[in-house]
Amino acid sequence: MSDGWRTHLASLEALARAEGLDYRPVEFEAVPDSLMMEIAIYGLPVRMPHWSFGVRYIYRLVQHRLGLSRLFEVVFPGDPGHAYLARNNSDAENILVAAHVLGHADFSANNLLFRRSAGQVGEHIVEQAAAHARQIAVAIERHGADRVETVLDAALSLEQHVNVDAALRREPYPTEVTREAESTADPFLQRFRSLGPDVSTPTRDGRATIRASVPPHPERDLLWFLAHHAPELEPWERDIFLAVREESFYFYPVFACQIMNEGWASFWHARLLREAKFLPQGVYVDAIKCHSDVVRPMASGDGVSAHVNPYHIGFRLWDRIVERDGLEAARRIMQQDDDFAFVREHLDADMARELQLFRYEGPPKGPYTVQELDLRALHEAMLSPRYAFGAPTVAAHHVGLDGTLELVHDHVNDGRGLDVERSRRVLEYLVKVWRRPIKLATVNGDDQAFEMSIAPV
């Protein structure tokens, strides 16, 4: 591949600015396919080492060699942003990809969810992730690969179990709470309460201070909870949990805005290509053909809405919003919404029919039967895999006197069951760092109460 696309990069960026895109500088780099795939699998150019990434890499490699997937680019928001383009892309493809990246850069610089993430995690996640990787390399030297892998197994098994509604830097739980003291004239009871480990002498205003329970409320940020409350966690182990948690906070906006973000970038790469009079005719035509491939519909199987191409549906929604309400209205939506608000507000019945987003039923290989369009069911089919970062809602509920950690699955509001075998594997990872028994309360397939329990070996 030549670097001919770079000769047009400055003109493309100037055009993007002139069209109203507002973004931080982006550093572009062309890399080999193998490195491109590694970056996509790890989620960052340099990241903490773990066997699970290797498993994902092998799967993606097989998909790639079978011609079932292809990576054009991977982009990381920041100041500056970092964009990695496949070296085997043609010049036309990389021109389109560069325009696409500028759309992403505009989105991440202005969307409130991305801005909140940047305010907490910072603008240099690539460098921070490299620092985490070095930190883990030092831990391996000092404590051995097996011990470090045990901690990574536990931390990465919980990488989706964070509370993104809370701050990244949280205050610790209060150690004491106050409540109205129970009045009694019995000297023995007064003496008994004063001797208890959890109750202090009432204050002058008649209130008593007691030791706060841990956790004081159901805690769904399991990475934070284990980092701060695992009974025997060493400082270097705690740091690994917090490093994984920090990276999860960075990834959440990408996860929660995929349809909006990919659609916005696709809308802008198409718009910039139309206005890029400086491109040679042949390059322009090839880039437009690439655009058609990127935003083509893609759906199959039962519940077709869960398999739509986010580039396609996002592009079509933004195109209609701009045509109907204007670019400034579209920018306000881009700044304020995430996929949950965007899909519910703008994917109406007319657009669903136009995009043929019917629900299908049938065996994996067909034949399929088109079901009646149910807009609410369509929205839920698209969005339910994204609730709570795509993970079941499990919270730390109580720590017993013997250190037993009780976890509770909120199956009622979650609306999803647990994979029993996967859940057991996760508990096996966790018990090695909690070092006390762990119980998980959920329901079985018949909606009956079910408890899974595991103790350290």
Q: Output the number of helix runs.
A: 19
As residue ranges, the low-confidence spans are: 57-69, 299-306
Q: Spatial order of the strands in the main sheet? A: 8-9-10-11
Shape type? globular
Number of strands: 11
Mean pLDDT: 84
Q: What Rg is obtained from the alpha carbons, in whole angstroms?
A: 26 Å
Strand content: 5-15%
Q: What is the CA–CA distance across the termini?
A: 55 Å
SSE arrangement, N to C? HEHHEEHHHHEHEHHHHHHHHEEHEEHHEE
- Largest sheet data: 4 strands, mixed
SSE class: alpha+beta
In helices, the fraction of residues equals 40-55%
Protein model, in words:
Among the domains are: 176-211, no CATH class; 295-391, no CATH class; 393-454, no CATH class. Strand 6 (360-361) and strand 7 (369-370) form a beta hairpin. The strands form four sheets. The chain has a four-stranded mixed beta sheet with strand order 8-9-10-11, with helices on one face. The protein has a three-stranded mixed beta sheet with strand order 1-3-2. By secondary structure, the protein is of the alpha+beta class. It has helices spanning 9-18, 33-42, 51-65, 91-110, 112-121, 125-143, 145-157, 187-195, 222-229, 235-256, 258-275, 281-294, 310-325, 327-336, 339-346, 349-354, 375-383, 411-414, 420-434, and strands spanning 26-31, 73-76, 81-86, 176-180, 207-211, 360-361, 369-370, 394-399, 405-409, 438-443, 449-454. The radius of gyration is 26 Å and the shape is globular. It contains 19 helices and eleven strands. Residues 57-69 and 299-306 have low confidence and may be disordered. The termini are far apart.
